[in-house]
């Protein structure tokens, strides 16, 4: 699956939980860089 691009425009996003989803990343997506308020990121399966 792909993450909807609109989510990367939520610059004030603090919590991003993709756990249990079917997303797969071999490296961190560079699109996360602008999310400077992000304090919690969950990518667990």
Explain what you see.
This protein is an all-beta fold and 45 residues long. It has strands at 15-17, 40-42. The protein has one domain. It has no helices and 2 strands. It is globular.
How many strands? 2
Total of helices: 0
Mean pLDDT: 85
Strand content: 5-15%
Structurally, how many domains make up the residues?
A: 1
| Series of secondary-structure elements, N-terminal to C-terminal | EE
**Biggest sheet: strands side by side, in what order?**
1-2
Alpha-beta content class: mainly beta
Helices and strands, with pairings:
Blueprint: E1 15-17, E2 40-42
Parallel strand pairs: 1-2
What tags apply to this protein structure?
two-stranded parallel sheet; mainly beta; globular; 2 strands; single chain; 45 residues
Entry summary:
With 45 residues, the protein is an all-beta fold.
């Amino acid at each position: 699956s792909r993450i909807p691009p609109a989510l990367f425009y939520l610059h004030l996003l603090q919590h991003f939980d993709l756990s249990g989803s079917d997303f797969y990343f071999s490296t961190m997506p560079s699109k996360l860089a602008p999310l400077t308020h992000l304090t919690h990121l969950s990518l667990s399966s």
